[in-house]
Amino acid sequence: MCGIIGYVGDRNAVPIIVEGLKKLEYRGYDSAGIAVYGADSFDIVKCKGRLSELEKQLAGHSLASHMGIGHTRWATHGEPSDVNSHPHVGSQNKIVVVHNGIIENYQQLKERLEHRGIEFASQTDSEVIAQLAEYYYNGDLLDTVIHLSTALEGSYACGIMCLDEPDTLIAFRKDNPLIIGVSEHGQFIASDVPAVLTDTDKVYYLDDKEIAMLRKDSVQFFNLDKEPIEKTLETITWSFDSAEKGGYPHFMLKEIMEQPKVVRDTVQSFADDGENARIIEKLDIANFDKVVIAGCGSAYNAGVVAKYVFEQLCRMSVEVELASEFRYKDAIVDEKTLVILISQSGETADTIAALREAKSKGAATLAIVNVVGSTIAKEVDFCLYTIAGPEIAVATTKAFSAQLIVLYLLALELATKRENVTDEVRQSLRDDIAALPDKIAEILEHIGAIQKYASESVGSKSIFFIGRNIDYAIALEGSLKLKEISYIHSEAYAGGELKHGTMALIEEDTLVVTIANCASLYRKIMSNAEQVISRGAKVLLISNNPEAKKSVGEFGDGSSEPDDRLSLISLPEINELFSPSLSIIALQLFSYYVAANKGLDIDKPRNLAKSVTVE
Q1: Is the pLDDT of residue 355 over 90?
Q2: By C-alpha distance, which of 40, 42, 142, 160 is closest to 99?
Q3: Given this model, what pLDDT does residue 559 score?
Q4: Which 8-state DSSP code applies to residue 267?
């Protein structure tokens, strides 16, 4: 899980690469480095730490070159250190490489090369690519890359330069994303679009086992048989501003505030003339007797929410699987199963593996992704897009909200095809979904109470989240958001499970966030809240139930005064099936302001990276 960028063209590569790395730092920030083509050798500057540390080191060098590569790292093999930082150069100083991914057979390759007298400098798997490339090099870098691609096992996206070929930058990939940008002043390679948006909106998407050869005035593509490939140049519709903070202190807060527009745009994509509507029209739900939803992290949590919606509307059996487990469990899926894969990036390694496992068993596959041209989008039978734009903060917010909207509308349309809902009910539910952007905006206009409560919760050692039914599903995401960015221990539980072990963890002043939007279960969850309060806990109630304000006033021994152990964040009313889209806004803001009050690096939480492209 790293970010790579490269440039060859008419301008000085150094500032271009540094600016590109700034746009990619969300992919990894243990270390960073840059290599440029020098007069008679590669000039390499790299170091442990954030990109700012690299910039300090570069300030002491007068690097300039027409071609170079850069890297920001999230460590997998070898601890973060100067020597383990990328780029890596071969022992002959002839070939230099940046790499994203994991080389699974690196130990065998390393031992073979060491047996031939080649000395390694780092602990990384990536160095073996540079050393092996030098070992294979016969005067043609393209031939060398083809040879490399047949020898390496695992996943990789690489940029590579050779001292003997001063005008050539080569990129190649397998199971990791890589784009090729084309501009008037030169060509780019990058892990993600934001890295090149300052210079161009024209890109090629490199597919698995394809090679790109870049020179300042041209880009050529080849397969592993060295045959030329024709590819389509695509135009990015994102604006440059959408990948900038826009005056907000953090990308996460900016992306939270963008959610009314994101939800509205995603709803619109399901209108009669929308692309997502056309995709669903092709899907024959009568072919399936079971739905399986797979994802990782927040995408999995979106799937848990969707299970409640699908089962109620479609009356179909729905299973939700962690993609990282699905690939190993010999899942019971067949040609009568619809497998839904959820991934913001479309490049999540475990979700790609789950997709391929499902296809190998004959299942139909449908993806919900945010990135056009991503691996998952290309490999599934059907693909629905979230219209979220670039999401930079590691902790997802707007992409998660867009995933929920796609899942609601997918469930509703499939229920209609199964004749489980009347036209009147369908229109009523669509109206409820269409009302969500304004109701989200309403929450965002009144965040003072959330800020205040978050500031009082900074010292919590553990915070628990409880709910019942679909409220439990969104509690999972609320808990994940908090632990991701605040580093406070947090767990989510179904309210009815408190007495089955969890109650032992409740201590004086433990905070229990209680989500209560399911009308039929309101009394049940409030009973759970009373149980934890009686054991010394404090409760933050998040609810749109009309009884909530009255409950806050009359809670406990019947006093008409509010209990100081029970606080309320009131939400707009909405059909409870879609209430997670409102609950999550309050939960995101709560997590954000807890982390902000702790002074943490919210956009780049420790040990995490945005796109999990390795297992």
Answers
A1: yes
A2: 160
A3: 37
A4: H
Please report, to the nearest 10 degrees, the dihedral formed by the alpha carbons of residues 58, 62, 68, 73 taken in order. Answer: -10
- 566-570 and 538-543 beta bridge pairing: parallel
Question: Helix or strand or coil: residue 330?
Answer: coil
CB atoms within 10 A of CB 226: 12
- In the predicted model, what is the mean pLDDT of the chain? 90
Active-site residue (options: 22, 48, 110, 610): 610
DSSP string, 599-614: T--TTS-TT--SS---
CB 227 within 8 A of CB 136: no
Characterise 262 by phi-psi region: left (phi > 0), alpha (psi -120 to 50), beta (else): alpha
Q: Specify whether the CB–CB gap between 71 and 4 falls below 8 A.
A: yes
* pLDDT at res. 41: 87
Q: Are 479 and 492 in contact (CB under 8 A)?
A: yes
- For a pLDDT cut of 90, what percent of the chain falls above it? 64
Q: pLDDT at residue 110 above 60? A: yes
Of the candidates 169, 174, 187, the one whose C-alpha atom is nearest the C-alpha of residue 100 is: 174
Catalytic residue list contains 2: yes
The pair of three-digit structure tokens given for residue 266, joined into one six-digit string: 């995603």
How far is the C-alpha of 365 from the C-alpha of 415, rounded, in Å? Answer: 18
User: Would you call 162 a catalytic residue per the annotation?
Assistant: no
Q: Are 298 and 480 in contact (CB under 8 A)?
A: yes
pTM for the model stands at: 0.80
| Catalytic choice (2, 158, 162, 314) | 2
Residue type, 326: F
509: pLDDT strictly greater than 90 = no
Measured CA to CA, the distance from residue 326 to residue 319 in angstroms comes to: 11
Distance (Å, whole) CA 430 – CA 355? 30
Q: In this structure, are residues 484 and 395 in contact, taking their beta carbons and an 8 Å threshold?
A: yes
Q: Where are the alpha helices (DSSP H) in 461-578?
A: 470-486, 522-533, 547-554
pLDDT tens digits along 575-596: 999 999 999 999 999 999 999 9
Residues 466-500 as b or e (16 or more Cβ within 10 Å = b): bbbbbbbbbbbbbbbbbbbbbebebbbbbbeebee
Phi/psi at 83 (5° precision): -70, -30
Range picked from 98-107, 252-261, 505-514, 553-562 for highest mean pLDDT = 252-261
**pLDDT tens digits, residue range 123-144?**
888 999 999 999 999 999 999 9
Note the Cα 30 to chain centre separation in Å.
18
